[in-house]
Design goal:
Strand order of the largest sheet: 2-3-1-4
CATH class: Alpha Beta
Largest sheet: 4 strands, antiparallel
Number of helices: 2
Structural class: alpha+beta
Shape: globular
Order of helices and strands: EHEEHE
Number of domains: 1
């Protein structure tokens, strides 16, 4: 069974470009993790949200990716740079 996620992030306007850069760095790293089948991110037309998604071959690969072992100093903290909580949906194939 493959596993993945879709996440909606809501950065403050003053931090939007920096936030997109943060998401890009995380996406690049996740794309190198074992079993990663795909990873991408998008921004909404109004720059209100950044949407990220990724997909792994197995639950074990998914879980291991989020240990961030060997990750180059990634900033994944939720803080005042975001105007509302992230919405993250874990998904699995049937």
């Amino acid at each position: 069974m493959s596993v993945g996620f879709v996440a909606f992030h809501y950065p403050a306007a003053a931090h939007f470009d920096d936030f997109v850069d943060r998401v890009a760095r995380v996406a690049t790293f996740l794309g190198t993790t074992p079993g990663c089948l795909s990873v991408d991110y998008w921004v909404t037309d109004d720059d209100a949200a950044v949407v990220s998604a990724a997909h792994w071959e197995t639950e074990q690969d998914y879980t291991a990716a989020f240990t961030f072992d060997g990750a180059p100093n990634l900033d994944v903290a939720f803080d005042e740079r975001e105007v509302r909580p992230r919405e993250i949906f874990k998904l699995h194939s049937r």
